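Input chain follows. Return structure tokens only.
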Amino acid sequence: MSPITTHILDVASGKPAAGVAVILEHKTNSSGWHAIANGVTDVDGRIGTLLGADDTLTPGHYRLIFETSTYYPECFFPEVTISFVVKDVEQHYHVPLLLSPFGYTTYRGS
């Protein structure tokens, strides 16, 4: 399993949000943010393969960018960016997004 995973739940319908493009970026001191992976949510609203199981993380700042306008064309937030910190590279980082046309929330998942 990827060391960083995500999923999107459409809280307005109570269903997973399929077909949403997601970009994973890592911040480097020398060149700012650098895209390291991307994917599209499946029928369960999940992306479990952003990184390969053998890919290693380095401590630092990461962010997931969700292209939410592909799911909700008339949404208020056409893009959602969630930044987070990886301190322990041995841990799994699951970052869920709860989404509606006019709001979103997130948390550290398991």
